[in-house]
Amino acid sequence: MKKYAIIVAGGSGTRMESNLPKQFMLLKDKPVLYYTLKTFLEAYEDLQIILVLPVDYTDMGQEIIDAYFDKDRIRITAGGDTRFQSVKNGLALVEEESIIFVHDGVRCLLTKGLIHRCYAQAVETGTAIPAIASKDSIRLITEEGSDAFDRNKVMLIQTPQTFHSKILLPAFQIDYKDKFTDEATVAEAYGMKVSLVEGEENNIKITRPIDLLFAESIVSSH
After folding, report:
1. Which residues pair with 138 in a beta bridge?
2. In the chain, fewer beta carbons within 10 Å around the N or the C end?
3. What confidence score (pLDDT) does residue 222 get?
4. How far apart are CA 210 and CA 37, in angstroms?
């Protein structure tokens, strides 16, 4: 089946204490975004990427594509004010029935194995949401303070969140709500149940300077 990866890289560098958005910061002499794009392109030869970027950084994104990749497999579109709108802008370029991956551009350490797991489950069930168990103790905030909560009932959600186009495209036609923090919450609001798939410990979202150091150690070990 046709495959699209919508890579959402619309963030700024506020928590990185940098004026440069974190997806363009260098990791072993290449932009963070390079590693994300490379993994998806190598996962499937017939996969097309839709790269969603801040409007002021589309030229910088094009420079990365021109320098490293087959530009026929990657298209760029401008992001919106919210993740929901950015993903919706990317979905507007999906032209046929397909499996659609939606991935955070700064989760640059994912593996082809995770992409393959998500694809296989989305083909079977229509959805695949990567998740890992919490290793930390969990507490729920209450009006009185906080209560301990069974961490075995909590999963930490990652991307690529993966869907059949028949589910994701109509789901993104519903009105935006503040609770839409990811694609799974949109699909659930549309009335669909989502299925989880095993994520990866290293599939972190680069948001702070220490994350770049961790990512550098992982990239160096491969």
Report:
1. 149
2. C
3. 80
4. 22
